[in-house]
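Chain particulars:
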Amino acid sequence: DDMMRNISLNPKLSKNIIPINAGIGKDGHLIFYQDGSGIIGSTSFIENVHGKDAKELKVKGLSLESALKEYNISHVDLLKMDCKGCEFFLTENSLKNVDRIKIEFSKFSNFELDDILNLLEKVGFEYMTFITEPSHHVSPMIETNIYATKKDIS
């Protein structure tokens, strides 16, 4: 509801915004684990970081590839991902029509930063990593930002 209200505030841009009522990551039902205050912080469908008393929220899940197909999106200028692990489900095919990507990376389970960076290189992206919270004192291998641009776009 808040998102739809925000989109409507700028009619010129609103025609270019496609709200998708699903969790982007993988196809199927996704279970997000919440602490007592709801979906905030490190909430992911990959693992429960809130303990045995976590609440479960089941939502529709779509892979990026499925979302692009279902909503007839043929080109993405900028893909921004702050999804606590959904970036690990990106594929070469899902990124073929993406020009730029910005990912807020957090390490989960067996997934590593190099997994994402290797995929980006394989698909033809140049990338840089950076931190936005220098006082956070967390290794860039655990939390960092990635900004990548396809080599062949002008």
About this structure: The mean pLDDT is 84. The chain is about 20% helix and 30% strand. Residues 29 and 70 are 16 Å apart (CA to CA). The radius of gyration is 16 Å.
